[in-house]
Amino acid sequence: MQIFKPSSTATLTAQKSVVNNLNFYYGSYQALKNIDMVVYEKQVTALIGPSGCGKSTFLRCFNRMHDLYPHNNYEGEIILYPDNENILSREVDPIEVRMRISMVFQKPNPFPKSIFENVAYGLRIRGVKRRSILEEKVENALRNAALWEEVKDRLGDLAFNLSGGQQQRLCIARALATDPEILLFDEPTSALDPIATASIEELISDLRNKVTILIVTHNMQQAARVSDYTAYMYMGELIEFGATDTIFIKPKNKKTEDYITGRFG
Amino acid sequence: MAMNHSDNLNEIRAIIAYHKRWDLLALIAGIVALMIAVLTFIALFGNMIIDGMPRLTWEFFTSFPSRKPEAAGILSAWVGTTLIMLVTAAAAVPLGVAAGVYLEEYAPKNLITEIIEINVTNLAGVPSIIYGLLALGLFVYELGLGQSILSAGLTLALLILPIVIVATREAIRSIPVSIREGAYALGATKWQTVADHVIPYSAPGILTGVIIGLARAIGETAPIITIGALTFIAFLPPSPIQDEFPFVSFEWLMEPFTVMPIQMFNWISRPQEAFQHNAAAAGLVLVVMTLLMNGLAIYLRYRLRKKIKW
Ligand SMILES: Nc1ncnc2c1ncn2[C@@H]1O[C@H](COP(=O)(O)OP(=O)(O)O)[C@@H](O)[C@H]1O
Ligand SMILES: [Mg+2]
Question: Which CATH class is domain B56-307?
């Protein structure tokens, strides 16, 4: 399998987002504890850690997904640059946040609509009506998701007719179509076979210079392959964060080292 | 414990044989119960076919009722039934879908919502004549709609409303969370998610519920009699489609009417044998209408479910 190495200029890039002292509660259960982290612009940041440590919970703070359900509470800040806005603030509409930050889910979740309409949906709810603009943006998104060649002759087909890997790339195209500032991935390959997984990983590597990416993975090899930065989480806490090379070669924290060397996890 | 090996085995076999006797008894009891149901159906339906079949001619569908049994037909009854079903569907679908969507998507989960939910479920069990009484007071007198097709259609709409609401809610609940979250994650508002995803994807289930509701409404007699259906009507309401501008007319809504089950009831209560045959023929038509509707519901569910697989 091909290995995708992060660019060596990793440390020179701007900050896209800064997380300050983030706490998150499902009712009375605290799922995230005092998290501080930086998301660098046009870089891939991986969130790793054992199952149940809060990776998805953390990721879903970035697009305010938790606002959909009652009794969820955020404390702290996620500042988005360059406008220096705390997207967790009560004054900020979660819909506005979701329009700026897209998400790809664990299991491919295309809508039971045509391939074209799946990708166009985000544009439509932003008020794009002109057929020519829709067609152009859909094509661009599908190209960026490395799906265009496979589907260009059947854009009207139902999305369910695609293979699992194609469906996930369709969901990536759907998320890309609206030019998001950050693209969130929650274990995007966990429901896919190894070949489809490799193609998604390759795609993420190709996207790294176009969009800021935050990816949850329980697969450490995947984090090592695709990411520039890695955050290791354990029981709701961020244990260690740094350049992926450093984290994987000489982690500072004993817990990180144990997890990475497979002594636990 | 040194129990003899073959003794042990014999004991097990005896227990199994004893238990299997109960298997057999349960099987026989089940078959007997089933045969009673099947035989009842065959007896009812077979009798109706024998009595009614000879009367099922073209004229039977195109003739008004008459004092002469051999000239009487079900024209005013099937037209009345059809028009009332139109009104029922037109009223029950938007109301039922809106209520179902509200309960599933918008209503806060609290005591009031729970009470409303229990009420909706209980409404389905209220005897239909109660609906008739309510409608007589509300539609016929209070709102002044009279003993009209409109009153009857609205009454039956109330009657099947719980069925439509429950079907809508079940259809909505079968949409996976991941689809909903997919829409929200793209920045959709609640209404956009409902209008673009929730309602379209639950349409097959809703449609099935509507048809099952209509199949129940089509045979309802008590509430229709209560609000004052006529038992003898020898004219048709004005056609909804006119050949003069504005080409549609809603005059038919306010017309008196009769329906299939009432026409049947009217004939059954006549002493002449020949009218009994007319009643059987009308019953046959009604049963076939109901079966066709249920068949359509099953077919639609099968077809549309195949397209949307979660
Ligand atoms: N909706 C929820 N309500 C209550 N607790 C939850 C909910 N979702 C997740 N949790 C809990 O929060 C913790 C973190 O979960 P999650 O973020 O899904 O972990 P991960 O993605 O790292 O496997 C777990 O202990 C989980 O049981
Ligand atoms: Mg997770």
Answer: mainly alpha
**Phi (first) and psi of residue A240, to 5 degrees:** -155, 140
Cβ of B201 and A175 within 8 Å? Answer: no
Question: In 3D, which of B33, B37, B40, B70 has the Cα closest to residue B55?
Answer: B70
The Cα of B189 is separated from the nearest Cα of chain A by a number of Å equal to: 7
Each domain of chain B, given as residue ranges in start order, spans 2-53, 56-307
Which pairing describes strands A29-40 and A15-26: parallel, antiparallel, or unpaired?
antiparallel
Q: Which amino acid is at B33?
A: A
User: What is the Å distance from ligand 2's center to A57 Cα?
Assistant: 7
Predicted local confidence at residue A6, as pLDDT: 46
Give the number of the atom of ligand 1 that is nearest the alpha carbon of residue A55. 22
Q: pLDDT tens digits, residue range B253-285? A: 888 888 999 999 999 988 888 899 999 999 999
ipTM of the complex model: 0.92
pLDDT digits (tens, 9 = 90+) for A95-125: 999 999 999 999 999 999 999 999 999 999 9
Q: Which residue has the tokens 């508002």?
A: B189
Residue B186 to chain A, least CA–CA distance (Å): 6
Is the CB of residue B67 less than 8 Å from the CB of residue B133?
Answer: no
Does the beta carbon of B246 lie under 8 angstroms from any beta carbon of chain A? no
Instruction: Report pLDDT digits (tens) over A49-65.
Output: 999 999 999 999 999 99
Q: Do residues B199 and B156 lie in contact, with contact meaning Cβ atoms separated by under 8 Å? A: no
Give me the mean pLDDT over the A208-213 stretch: 92
The pTM for the full model equals: 0.84
Contacts 24+ apart (CB under 8 A), B130-138: B131/B155, B131/B158, B131/B159, B131/B223, B132/B222, B132/B223, B132/B224, B132/B225, B132/B226, B132/B227, B133/B226, B134/B158, B135/B223, B135/B226, B135/B227, B136/B226, B136/B227, B136/B228
Q: Which atom of ligand 1 is nearest to the CA of A69?
A: 1
Q: Which of residues 46-75 of A touch B (CB under 8 A)?
A: 63, 65, 68, 70
